[in-house]
Amino acid sequence: GSLQDYSYLKEKNVAPHPFEHRGYLEFSMGLSFAKEEFASKVPVSNYPGMEMVGFSSKMTMGYWFTRGIGVSFASRTSQYDVVGHSSRLMYWDLDAFTLGPVISVPLARKLRFDLTPSIGFATAYLTVDDEEVYTGEGLGMNITGALVYHMSKRLFVSASAGYLSSRQEYNDGGSGNARDMDVELGLGYKFGKRSL
To answer: Which residues contact 79 (CB under 8 A, 6 or more apart)?
Structure first.
């Protein structure tokens, strides 16, 4: 009788935890579009100005607390050639290191939209013949929106657009606005036992 009663007992299945904390690493690259020249007066002989379209790349490390909220650290760089620089190697760099939250909105089973506002340190510098001749630094504010598609439990791809704004104070005197937009494609790897 005891064995029969036991065999008919309804067992309760304990559901596994639906989400585990984890980190991710992503690399993206694409085009950048300068909104203003980084300096109005540059102490370089016959300085002709900068191109307004350049190349951008970004490395992002992040950590998810829940399905919809996380935090990320991004290291981003944009590079712009100087107009008519065939005789000398001259280009501008705009680098930023920013930290901020990630807000994620699911759009489909494998597709989501991520919004990442962040703040940090930004620096702009002019390089001539592999030597930095004009350098600035300041507070940088960045906001990025991205469509993210999960190809598997580990890999995801993204298409993003970002905007960076920074007021630069230059070492040789003066200041200027460093602002640009970037459009990038990315590939990322997720760490953990479960997928989002």
So the answer is: 32, 54, 55, 56, 91, 92, 93, 94
Tokens of 124: 């702009």
Question: In the block, which residue shows the tokens 């007021």?
Answer: 167
Task: Give the pLDDT score at 30.
Answer: 98
Weakly modelled stretches of the chain, pLDDT under 50: 195
pTM over 0.85, yes/no: no
Cα-based distances in Å from 37 to 33, 101, 109, 127: 11, 29, 42, 15
Name the residue with tokens 């036992």: 193
Bridge pairing between strands 90-106 and 22-34: unpaired
Q: How far apart are CA 79 and CA 83, in angstroms?
A: 13
